[in-house]
């Protein structure tokens, strides 16, 4: 029995020595830049090396990972790296290689996205996320966006759902400084921010945070469900999010936009009312409420909302133009009635009343368009509308003024 033990021990030593020898040869080829030869050598000796003791098996898998990365086989590179992690002695080398895999896979995904290979790009970004879900969570957000661009909606839902479940916001801290020499504010890095605070060349140091991406994620999930014809899931997705944050303005607007997509303007209007209660000085909210209220047939309220939007944001061009269009909507019915009249004395009297009513509409629009030109003096649509109004009501001075403005721009 003693001799048998010695014999077996000799075999094990010889086998271990062979494993070490073959591995060293493969590593030597790889370090010499002969990646293909190293890979072929590993394939030839795969049985020996894969069954080796932990030390050599981990080094074998580590080398396999390096070769796979060189060949842009990112998933394979990571799979081999996971096997190599069984040996704690390779901890530093594994951490470096893992970072290289992430870097390479992200660079490849950027290139694929530029080439409109959106699904490949999305899956590579998802791999980068998988390697370190905490540090690389941003890559999952971009992976979902690329899946939408593909469009691969099932993949997009998968990625967005993960982001929703972990309540990803993507909020980043921003740093701003104002250069005293030219009084210009610019965004800088945190380290630059801390350095500039110690100099006399900058002032107005401020920090800010980017907007949360969570409402956008919930909205995209709902919109994708809607596009897939799963309207109940679309509404459920946004309602679940709002149940957690009922006063979140972004989520209120998201739900409102979903109802617009579904053609439910009444519910949109109600939700816009909620949004305004949260942000009463937001002109865009009043503008959107005005558009839908007008579509629902309440012209008077729509007009008041447009006027409120203009009061809050005087530079909002579409609010002026839509308000004028709303006022002039009544003109078509007036003209139609005028055209239906005969030549009797009563009809002629009625015609004069309608003419005055029509001119009153025009005169309502003049100050609105005049105010508009104060904030957008070269808007041809407004100038042309005013020119036509002045021509219709017989205001030659106003007509010529608008004509000169139009001529000057041509």
Task: Note the topology.
Layout: H1 2-31, H2 35-44, H3 46-50, H4 54-70, H5 74-84, H6 91-114, H7 118-131, H8 137-149, H9 153-165, E1 173-179, E2 184-188, H10 190-196, E3 202-209, H11 214-227, H12 231-244, H13 249-261, H14 265-278, H15 283-295, H16 299-312, H17 317-340, H18 345-375, H19 380-393, H20 396-409
Antiparallel strand pairs: 1-2, 1-3
Judged by helices, strands and strand pairing, the structural class is mainly alpha
Cα-atom Rg, whole angstroms? 35 Å
Main beta sheet: 3 strands, antiparallel
Kindly state the mean pLDDT as a whole number? 87
Uncertain residue segments: 1-17
- Proportion of residues in β-strands: under 5%
Provide a quick synopsis of the model.
With 410 residues, the chain is mostly helical. Among the domains are: 14-115; 173-209, no CATH class; 316-410, Serine Threonine Protein Phosphatase 5, Tetratricopeptide repeat (Alpha Horseshoe).
Offer a few descriptive terms.
single chain, 410 residues, mainly alpha, Serine Threonine Protein Phosphatase 5, Tetratricopeptide repeat, three-stranded antiparallel beta sheet, 20 helices, elongated
